[in-house]
Amino acid sequence: ESLKVKAHIKTDFSDKFGIPRQSGLVNTKGKIIFEPDYRDEIALRGLEDFSHLWLIWGFSANKSVGFSPTVRPPRLGGNKRMGVFATRSPNRPNPIGLSSVKIEEIYRDGNNGTVIIVSGADLLNNTPIYDIKPYLKFTDCHPEAKGGFADEVIEDKLTVEFSDGLKEKINTDDLQNIIAILGSDPRPHYHDDERVYAFEFAKYHIEFSVKDDSLTVC
Length: 218
Fold this sequence. Notes:
Blueprint: E1 7-11, E2 29-34, E3 52-58, E4 70-71, E5 82-83, E6 96-109, E7 113-119, E8 127-134, H1 137-140, H2 149-152, E9 159-162, H3 172-183, E10 197-201, E11 204-211, E12 214-217
Parallel strand pairs: 9-12
Antiparallel strand pairs: 1-2, 1-8, 2-7, 3-6, 3-8, 4-5, 6-7, 10-11, 11-12
């Protein structure tokens, strides 16, 4: 059987900009809705006893064409090339992603059958899901693992500030996620310090600028 889309995920990310660079970094929620042919409750029997999932999905917004053996990882500033198979770049020979997420809830939705609510999602809204598999800590967790160049680069952390009155307009859960997204610096590493950046998250249009290590939502 050929590879088929089994589900789609609904998230608060309507654009690629602003999506966390890895799953689990931000407590963003996602709702997995199965395609009609796969809405059989029996297929999910036993899943409620697991805490985490692997999602195997497609880079639906990836426009790259052809094979490039090297890419420029944002973690290295976007100015150094590494082998594509030594990175998690979306620009891959096969546009397939892998994310580890936490199961928050499994319930029946009158319109969509059984759905799964997950947290830690790093996926664009309506991303196609090819498969889900339970996360097994006795095989999938490797505390001794080495992370190559990713271990050698310190994560960007910014202080996030808001212009007067803006914070009060954002509900608590969204505010925490917005601060986490912005604090990890969503800009490309080859950024322009004079630029005002913008992206959509949930029901908010967010504009911000950065000076030194301080980010201001304007």
